[in-house]
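May I ask for whichever protein you like with its backbone structure tokens?
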Amino acid sequence: MAQAVEPPQAVQTGRILKPSFNVVSLAELPGSSCLLSADSCGVISCWDITPTESKDQQAPIHLLNAHDDGIAQVLLLKSSHVAERFEEQRWETWATRRAEEDKTQSREDTSESATTVDTAGRRQISNSNAGTEEGDNPTGIPRGEKSEALHDVEDDDGFPTKKGCCKTLLDCCFPCCIKSKRSLQPHWFVATAGEDGIVRIWRWKLLGRSQADRKHQWQVDRVAQWVCSERLPIQHCLELHDGYLAVSLKDNNDIRLVDPITASVRWMLYGHTKPPTAFAECLDGRLISGGADGAVRLWAKRSWNMPNGDRTGGEKTGLQRIADADFDDGLHPPQTPSMVWGQPGQEQESTVGVCSMAFFAHTQQSQRGEVAGMCLRVLVLSGESLPKADTLGLSDPYVVCTLLDGTDESQIKSDIRGRTQAKRTPKWDHKMTLALKRAVIGGKAQLPECSYIDFDVMVTSSFGLLSKPDQCVARCSVNVEELLSQIAQNPKAAAQPSARKLFSPPGRGPHVDMETANLFVGFSQTRGGDSIDVIIDSVDAIEIGFSQKLYVAASMRQSSHGKVKRLPAKVRDVTSIKYNTVDPIWNEVLEFEVPVFIGDRHVSHSSEYRLHFQVYDHDYFASDDFLAELTVPLSEAIAADGKSSALYSLTLAKGYKSHVKKKPFFGGSSKAPVEGWEKGRNVRPSTPQNSSQLGGANPSLRLAFQAIVPCPKQLKCTVVSAAGLTSAGAKEAMEVRMRFVEGNPVMPCVTSVKTSYRRQTLKPVWKEKAVLDVPKELRETVHGFERPPAVRKGWIHEKGEDSDTTVVCVDIYDRDPLSGVDNYLCRGCVPLATAWQAVLDGDSRPKAVGLSHSPEGKLMLGFERGPNPAEQMTVLVDRAENLPGHDATGFSDPFCVVRLADLSQLGEPTDKAQMGCMPMLVTVPSLPGTGRGEAEFKHQEVLELPGAFEDQLVAARPGWHILFDLVQIKSQTVMGSGSVSVLNILNSIASTAPDKITNTKASVRERLENMASPFTAPVTKDPFEDDNRCKPITMKVVLDQLDKPMRQAVDARESDYVNPKQRSMNVSESLGSALVALGLRESTERRELGTEGVELAVRFEIVSRWKGEARGTRSPLSVPMHGPSPVTCLATLANSVVSGHEDGNVFVWDSWGTSSAPLHQFQAHRVPVSAIAVLTPLGCVVTAGRVRNREEAVSDSLLRLWSCVTLELRQTLSLHGAVARCLSPLAIGSAIDDIMQAVADAGDSDQKREKALRSVPPCLAIASDSRQAKQLALMKVDLPDAD
């Protein structure tokens, strides 16, 4: 099985910065390696976080006195709402200045004395404290309390100046050789919310680096401010996708949505009964708020975006009735300020809004549910008609499978992106189609609120051999919801291309030539409504050089960029490389762990997950070539669970076409095929019956899927003791390893028979007999006797039509006596039912069996009665044809291993299947027992029952076993193994339920405890209880040696001895024996250990998942909540909301509304949760606790990392008594793949390796403080191979 590529699992402390005051908020300026911190004294500090070798204290590179009081929040404005309006005002200012210059020039022409423009009012920039004016006021802001709308600032950057003719000609003719006139200093818009009740918008402009100390120089200007009329301190502030700011005030229960451009309140959101304490934003653009009342509310703008005149009368009463549905304690209704609802007949500037969804942790904690990991196994069987990529051969293909969220930006989809041709004249009349995605929210498909179509005008520059990367020179966005409304009202007018104003790229404007630039575009929609047709006509007023061309790129954006973190992080798995083929056969299983929500009897998952398959061609001296790709939704993969493999069509990369190789007929000859036995699941079919069904000449992958979901019930397993050991074995320390396996793993080992080998041939002839002992339960099953059924429906799934998976399995190996390790070649399987029926019919003629890994090969097998006809069966191994060659000579030394085995769902024999998703649990070392030859363990573990999701029901899978291995600790030798069927365990436990309910002291006490417990009884009836209690059972597991020497097959022409021609040893066998005798290699010959007859006493009991016995310390249970606990912080994932509470609990809620119960709940800290952040590169959720006294500072000043998949504890870091005020993931350290590649490229050189590790950028910033010190810690990833 291929190994999964996982991200780093931990972080480590990097640089430590020393701020002067307590840092309460952080904001990163992307693309500048600068971090802004806001402190409790109203100062914004700018830090350079570029990785350096020094960890000494560093001063901030810039300081800004932003507020007179403390700052509650500093945030980067990422939407284009403020930037576009600021650019329009800049154009108006330039128009005024040009008019003044024209007047001045006209006066100069008529007078000898020149008049200059007064520039005394322009801001002067200093290197030490840029952005301040001369005077007593250090902020340069009027001290009035009046709100100010967005206004322009005095700045000459970008203002057009007169140039000489030569300079203008050089700009037009040689754009690749000179600096672009659009390369202005980058800038960012930043909002600060202060305790003085003021929100201010700043423009941070980067002027470059100083020549003396190479530090960044900044120009900071205030462009707008909003002043709260009540002058209440601001507690929290968040920018939404449309550019509005959500603001919460101290001692006020309402949420204000402020327009920073007009400095006015546009909406007042009413619903919280106590002040809001935290904000976040969903993937689809909805606002999420958490309050001191313990409620988490989601706000959908389309539900309360209505005209001002509709807020009085009946509408007002309806809104109040909806919003007042939940009070704090039912006695005191929430305050309703008159400014929110208004007096009857009075008009207000703001519109009222109520929430569309709410979660209450203290009342919904009792609902059962949690997040667990589902094991998804993908069988990549083969490929069909792949492209030919090599010049001198075919291809060397391999498959990369990645588990992605459907909103992952790295997966570029052709249906949501498009572009025009690059032309000198910007006239295209190009039509493209962009797909629309609707999210299912509350059971209804809705368009995400943050749905936009982004248009980017790109310039491509080239002059001979000189070229530059494509540059974005203009952009604009169109709201999809408003666009659909226009199309519905007047389709013809919407389809007619009309002007859309173009703006400069974010942070790179304004440009003078954007003042009159427009994009002419039209829109239409088909009847299905799943896409939008975009007609791009032309672009005007954009100047380009003669060697440049323009094109327009359009993309559909339906998520809030940069705000929503994905779950899970990327998981990647790779197959092996198959050389020189376009029809490869891999037959490999890839495994992924997918987070799912488990309820009482159901399992749900995010609809956004996708499996992305990519086929590459391996090259030795160049980068691997991308050939084709395929995307399979996770829901489709789960629906294919239990079904046979199928072909999935591939989408070829540009420049490639499928290559159809002429295949010989099955069997390698033109003769009619020999009558054959029924083939096993994993055997590739021969000539397709329907070429269209199997893909024909279309490139495709043959895939199969298996989804192993955890069950709501778990199996408690207690290993008591081992009996029957030898006196020497009882003195040695032993341990028992246990795990779930598919099928009976002991049966293939005890029934294995080995044939002799044939030298250097691809068409061996054996003609040998292998006698197999058929177990009693299999004989009864074959004869039609059913296995004992489960006591109740719902314990375990019923067997389907293909439930009889026991086969006669024949593995063919290539003998290698020199190394002692035989090489696997191929496999053939015949169902046991078919073979046993042939024995009963007396039909022993050899028939053909198809072989895996050899599409043209075949194996001739026959079946007859054994020496003991009632219990044995004889397999006639006749011959084989067209085997794969393994030796350097092109031939092999093949021999066969014949055995009975169970086939897994993906077609693997259970003794050969590698299931990394099923954990192996190990007991404590054994203790000397009471009797002779005994060893005691008394070790208890709780195991996850492997389940299947069928017919909207989760139940255990039939045919699975628990494998026990008795291992000697000192030598790590497996002394014996045994297995027990899960079906037998469940039947035995269910049979212990009494017919009548008996009231004992224990049962009455347990019922009283359940009544007092905050976890109420589930709505769905528990099928394991059924008003009857099931008792634990104890079973004796008989152990046997699995690697005992195999029995030898006999010649079909003789009765009791092996073919005498194979008794002589060849040169390689003699050399191998000599190496073993000299001690140069270990012997691989199997030997008897003498451990047969050992019995293992194991006690089994069914327990409920909701008791939390299997969670342990890495996944703690939540603390019972006896009342509302204030929400302290929020974080958003792709389809869920994570809320931290005052009591240390963390809850995960479904933001799509498919489940009202919490998806998961656990106690992250024993103190209040102070901050939550999602660290996407590592795939984890980071939490920090707020200590309140000295005792808590010693034990609970911790930072913890939790897995995004299972929400289990991954790492704990001590903050040394400090309180973490805020956490901020950093984009500068998000490129984990590049970081790991740089460390890998360093090779074995310690110097290069150390240099690469020192240059790892930080990925997380932590602001903490204590009585002794204030610090800003920059955390970086702890690479697995950093030691």
Q: What stands out?
A: The first strand starts at residue 4 and ends at 5. The chain has a mean pLDDT of 77. The two ends are 27 Å apart (CA to CA).
